Amino acid sequence: MGKAFRRMFSMVAALAIFVSAFAVNLSALEAYDPYSYDRWWDPIPSQVGYYADYFADGVTLGCGAFNEPSGMHVSRDGLIYIADKNNDRIVVTDIEVKTVVREMRAFNYNGEVVTLNKPSDVFVDQYTGFIYICDSDNERVVKCDTEGNVERFFTKPDSELYSDELSYIPSKVIVDKAGIVYVIVPSVTRGAVMFSPAGDFVGFYGANRVETTGEILANAFWSLISSEEQRGRSVRSTPLGFTGFDIDDNGFIYTVTDSQDTSIDLLKKLNPRGDNIIDSLGVDEAWIFGDVPPLYYSIHARRSRLVDVNIGPNGEINILDFQNGRIFQYDSECWLMFVMGGIGEQLGTFRSPAALASYENKLFVLDSRKNNITVFTRTAFGELVTEATVLYIGGFFEESLEPWQQVLKYDGNYRRAYGGIGAAHFGNLNYGEAMKYFKLARYQGYYSRALAGYRDEWMRSNFNAILTAVSILIVCSLTLKLLFKFKILKKPQIRKLFSYRGKSNA
Predict the structure, then answer these.
(1) Are 20 and 34 contacting, i.e. CB atoms less than 8 angstroms apart?
(2) Which of 159, 165, 312, 495 has the fewest Cβ atoms surrounding its Cβ within 10 A?
(3) What is the average pLDDT score of the chain?
(4) DSSP string, 409-452
(5) How far apart are alpha carbons 224 and 218 in whole angstroms?
């Protein structure tokens, strides 16, 4: 009965949100159905955080059609670098994706002309301006300047730690502020391959864990009782490699892993030691990225395949889902903000989304089969949510109260708004109201803290009354003991007093 009521409540709320969205003309023109999740993890219609503005391709840019582009990066100065894989080039455009700034095909290395062979990714170091290119089929990462002068190649490590049996076909590259180069190699499952600025191999970084399954436990048991020869023939359990990564301004590296084959370490935020600090956030959403696996059939919740991650200007975590063609945007505390996109032919949907980037209030999605870039622009609702989130994350809870309330006028099921309002009341020591909103948001940890504050506040406000009542009880108890001690009052008299029921009228 309770579950049926919740389902009915969700349907009614969803209908109200749909009517609201249509009335303000935010989602009527989208080729996909924007949605979010309610308190019971059911997908429900929601407002659009970003709308598909337009797309651009090599033909519209005037540089010739793209051919399976696979990597993209937006530099700090507002240029978009595109790894046009099957055309063996890097195309650089303006932030509006309307003008080609330059093409990079031939490079100068000590007076010798070198070319790319199936480049799969590109990254621009914001501190030095150097460009790093995954020259995949040449099995190297190229470091060059904007004029195409190559400073260094990062090639297959010559080390005992890097097995000769492992191939070296780099697919993604990033660089931190110290100049350390991190490379994703699909054949390597021990984490990203690390190089020093001088090009020396220094190890592996941030390996995923092996998910504990029944098969893993069984293999571990049999390995204890098997002979050495049998163990040699057994299949070894290895972690999955990364499918994409990005680095933020503070040097934290974010990684994603294909969720078709695992349910752990889908998104990680790694510190310099390679520890995943998302594990310490302590919220349920920290373990759910992409679509929530359905308990029953749902068109919104097919299992995701996470292929790329991008960190936005306000710390937003943007994740690209190859399976469903969707972009999931989370705030820096890993709470879901928006879901957009889908599989299809219309503007705002994709065939084979390959890479994701952001700049100010825009998102860029590269499609390797449509051979184009779709530009998403933040809506008024998205701006409102972003403003409230930035204030909330910055600790300005009271200042975030008004924008959160405005968010709820757009979308009454927006959970993060309830949590934000609860936090504002909590910051003002209004624990009763905070408990109400934390309960609506299902912020269990925050609700417990508000409950503890409410309990302490109640104790303080009623302390005198409680102390008076306790004092009266103590005085009464001592008085009775003295009366009994000096035999002024006897226990049989007390029992007779309490057992007296009056005389019968018969």
Answers:
(1) no
(2) 165
(3) 84
(4) HH-TT-HHHHHHHHHHHHHTT-HHHHHHHHHHHT-HHHHHHHHH
(5) 10
The torsion angles phi and psi of 316, rounded to 5 degrees, stand at -60, 145
- The one-character DSSP state at 239 is P
Would you call 124 helix, strand, or coil by DSSP?
Answer: strand
User: What's the Cα-to-Cα distance from 26 to each of 19, 48, 380, 385, rounded to whole Å?
Assistant: 11, 6, 9, 14
Residue type, 219: N
Q: Where is average pLDDT lowest: 127-131, 153-157, 353-357, 472-476?
A: 472-476
End-to-end CA distance of the chain: 55
Global pTM reads 0.81
> Of 377, 351, 382, whose CA–CA distance to 366 is shortest?
351
Element (H, E) at 467: helix 463-485
Indicate the SS3 state at residue 75.
coil
pLDDT digits (tens, 9 = 90+) for 350-391: 999 999 999 999 999 999 999 999 999 999 999 999 999 999
Which residue carries 């349907």 as its tokens? 11
DSSP state, residue 361? T
d(CA 69, CA 355): 9
Residues 6+ apart with CB under 8 A from 288: none
Q: Torsions phi, psi of 190, nearest 5?
A: -95, 15
Largest CA distance in the chain: 127
pLDDT band at residue 304 under the 50/70/90 scheme: confident
> What is the Cα–Cα distance from 310 to 353, expressed in whole angstroms?
14
